[in-house]
Amino acid sequence: MGTTTPPRTLAEALRARGDESLAGLLRARPDLLNPVPNDITQLATRAGTRASVVRALEHLDRFALQTAEALAVAPDPAPYDTLLSLLTGDGLDDGEQRDDAGAAVTAALPDALATLREQALVWGEDERLRLVRTARELLAPSPQHPSPTGLGPTVAEATAGMSPGRLQEILASAGLPATHDPVSAVAALAALFTDRTRMAELLDTAPVEALSVLDRLVWGPPYGEVTPNPTPPVKWLRDRGLLLPVSTRTVVLPREAALHLRAGRAHRVPEPVPPVVAAVAERDPQVVDRAAAGQAFTALSTVEELLKLWNGGGPAILRAGGLSVRELKRTATALEVPEPIAAFWVELAYAAGLLAADGESDERYAPTPAYDEWLDLSAQDRWTHLATAWLPATRVPGLVGGQDAKGRALSALGPELDRSAAPEVRRRVLALFAELTPGTAPDPETLLRRLRWERPSRGSAPSGEGTDLRSRLALWTLNEAELLGITGRGALSSQARALLEEGEETAAALLAPLLPEPLDHVLLQADLTAVAPGPLERPLAATLSVLADVESKGGATVYRFTPGSVRRALDAGQAATDLHAFLAAHSRTPVPQPLSYLIDDVARRHGHLRIGAASAYVRCDDEAVLNEILADRRSTGLRLRRLAPTVLASQADPGSLLEALREMGYAPAAESAEGDVLITRAGARRTPPRTPPTPVPEGPPTPDAILLGAAVRAIRAGDTAATVIRKDPAEGGPSSTTSSGSLPRTTSAETLATVQAAAMTGSAVWIGYVNAEGAASQRVIAPVRVEGGFVTAYDHTADEVRTFALHRITGVAELAEDGT
Q1: CA-closest candidate to residue 620, choices 666, 652, 664
Q2: Phi, psi for residue 596 in degrees, rounded to 5
Q3: Non-local CB neighbours of 664 within 8 Å, separated by 6+ positions
Q4: Which of 71, 158, 468, 532 has its CA 20 to 30 A from that of 207?
Q5: Distance between CA atoms of 666 and 728, rounded to whole angstroms?
Q6: How far apart are CA 12 and CA 723, in angstroms?
Q7: CA-CA distance, 755 to 757, in Å (whole number)?
Q8: Residues 690-702: pLDDT tens digits?
Q9: Contact assessment for residue 657 and residue 616, using Cβ atoms and an 8 Å cutoff
Q10: ∠ CA 726-728-731 to the nearest 5 degrees?
């Protein structure tokens, strides 16, 4: 009674675990919770399904996966020492370096095995370790799916179906005694390959060319093609069973022979220790913070410029969704960045909820109302908003320009850019940055090596993207983090470290002193330019961007005044006196005379011509000006005709007529149907309220402690109901039932009498119950009250008080005393 019986199944192994261990399993494999299993048996069954096992294997680190791969080619069950030997070798070819590797494997194996046990991929005691059947099938070798270890099938598997005569020929060629029992023949051949002394003697007689053939197959793949008349070296190997036929043209190196040639190792290079992330440079943390802050300010300016560019309504949306190649190129030119970087800024604004589709029939992209709220924030808060939108985003701008599985181009803002692994890779890259000393820039190659060790690729990337999508995501993360100001000069900034560890408020507080203060002045120059020696206050920048064109950017922004820019300000409702007053108030230098003349000259001519809708018309009090327009050859395409001495009509629409006359050198103004001059302010087209795109999760979310505790209690209660010892009402003796057992059957009178007695004594009973949907279940309940055709009871299965209809109870049985 005091001894512990080794588990015979995975369900028994899970049943022997504590609640904390079960919670750990559900936390590591959250897909097992959807829905919550009824009992331990169902949990074990679900943990062995192919989809769940594949997901679990994909989340193992390299050494844990190597341990599982070694178990897949080991005998089932395998002792701990056999597993250790497969990972370290038999020690007969070890040098000092191999001894060090063996010591590292020996030290790391218990943790790797504990991880596999925790995730229910391995069960059993150390003397009888078992890999779950589905994992063994996934990792075991076959011609269609070679083993990750590069090992082939065993001698027994490779000779299955081989004729006894052929087996006798192999035994004779290998110098083994003949036997007429095929099983004994296979065992004798396997014993030869696992005997190092006899195997060495056999290989000493092999031709050199035969040994070269073995060298090519030993580390995999173990399969090779042969012709109907093989070469003498291949024939020598085939005659002695070192190459066994799989088909008429394919042979395989059996596992036992390969392990001998490998000195017992399942892997060429076991990797028990994660690679160290090396540093390429160590910089002053303050220099890193300033560089990152400068790039953060550039990021804010770029996003604002992008949305200002699309302020009056952005580019049209493709029929398949997304931004056309031409529009992306146009945006990149306007932002003065390469197209891949322009795609990143567009996607970042979209992920932050600042940009969306307007939903109109002619659908276009436009800023959202959230953009106006974002502009009102301080610079540091605007940056944290962008950074916190970037971290969990599953959209991957780096894919823009590539192709999907069907060969179609992937476009910016298109529907096929979500990759659920992106947030996890992004956060892991930044976590590795954070583990280094502040100011340290890691070596990207060692960083990628570490990521590949933590999550080895198993070829799960989408078609056409290669098998190592995680490495590409990591490289894109490095570039995007530098663009966004998360890193500076290749190292993690203090404000980004605070954002990851402490939150947005702390990060904003650290960033604020590093950002330049907005200025309230510019420097006007005689060459019709204005120099802004730093960032400008928002009202000043907004007005100046209308009055002048940006000529160059950088530490200082240069604005140029032109007749077109001044006319733009007049079209927005400004008067010449307003412009003079604005420049005088915000310039640290006197307003140059040429600039004053330019404003007065454009203002004097502004509105002299009036454009309206006839289709369109031109009216002017000066008949000479209209005569001049009619005589100009450039007006031929407008199809103008005189309606009155001061009015011309055109077949062109008002907008086209307005632009054409401006190109001819005139300064017309649009007018309303009432004859008033139309004031055209800067466009501010907004979408209806939009929420940012929801990240596409990678599998089920990690459950919290409350959900885990409730799930474990429910599973335990269901297991109690499924495995409880009950009394057979027909015989009065104890019997056991499982979740696959039949429901108890009693008459209505017997059911009522039993539950009433249980309510009076406070004991638990076992019932069968059919709910309103017709689903049958078994439950252990403790009745509290029986009245009105209903039983109010504590349901041990659901761990809560419930009410059961008496007519839906199929039967009831008392619990045996040792089962309660």
Answers
A1: 666
A2: -65, -45
A3: 629, 632, 634, 635
A4: 158
A5: 105
A6: 12
A7: 5
A8: 888 888 777 777 8
A9: yes
A10: 145
